[in-house]
């Protein structure tokens, strides 16, 4: 676990925390924010948006990925995910696969708890046997 945020761009953390504040989570009351740094150096953020019809909600990571794609980039360099609990908030299984579509083995995933502590892992540690397109054949 990283002891400091020195390897994470401060703006990336700020965007994730700001996104979390805007999360719409009236059912779970668990607000999540995500911000990613793309290969072009731009930051894209998203928050979870719940819906009374449970499967129709959207995770924070999916929102951030959507804004990255909208901007024309398709490569995640780093992603910060912040949840509202004492524990770290790793991406759900579906979001791990969504991230896998745009990540590589060097993509860093920074998990931030509500105390500001950070745990950083390589994406390949979160989803070691992901499936999908070969990155070099796209």
Could you characterize what this model shows?
With 138 residues, the protein is α+β, with helices and mostly antiparallel strands. The protein has a single domain (10-137), classed as Cytidine Deaminase, domain 2. Helix content is 26%, strand content 20%. The chain has 4 helices and 5 strands; from the N terminus they run αββαβαββα. The chain has helices at residues 10-21, 60-71, 93-100, 123-126, and strands at residues 33-38, 43-47, 76-82, 108-112, 118-122. The protein is globular, with a radius of gyration of 14 Å. The model has no long low-confidence stretch (mean pLDDT 91). It catalyses: cytidine + H2O + H(+) = uridine + NH4(+); 2'-deoxycytidine + H2O + H(+) = 2'-deoxyuridine + NH4(+).
Name the CATH homologous superfamily: Cytidine Deaminase, domain 2
What structural class results from the helix and strand content?
A: alpha+beta
Radius of gyration: 14 Å
Uncertain spans:
none
Annotated CATH architecture: 3-Layer(aba) Sandwich
> Beta fraction of the residues?
15-25%
Provide mean pLDDT, rounded: 91
The total domain count is: 1
Number of strands: 5
Biggest sheet details: 5 strands, mixed
Kindly report how far apart the N and C termini lie: 33 Å
CATH topology: Cytidine Deaminase, domain 2
H/E series: HEEHEHEEH
Helix content: 25-40%
């Amino acid at each position: 676990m990283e002891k400091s945020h020195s390897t994470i761009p401060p703006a990336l953390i700020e965007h994730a925390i700001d996104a979390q504040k805007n999360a719409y989570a009236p059912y779970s009351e668990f607000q999540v924010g995500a911000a990613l740094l793309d290969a072009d150096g731009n930051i894209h953020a998203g928050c979870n948006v719940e819906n009374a019809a449970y499967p129709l909600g959207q995770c924070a990571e999916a929102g951030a990925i959507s804004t990255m794609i909208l901007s024309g980039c398709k490569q995640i360099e780093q992603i910060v995910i912040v949840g509202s609990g004492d524990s770290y908030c790793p991406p759900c299984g579906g979001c791990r696969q969504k991230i896998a579509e745009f990540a590589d083995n060097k993509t860093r995933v920074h998990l931030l708890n509500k105390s500001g502590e950070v745990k950083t892992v390589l994406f390949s540690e979160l989803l070691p046997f992901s499936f999908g397109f070969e990155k070099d054949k796209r």
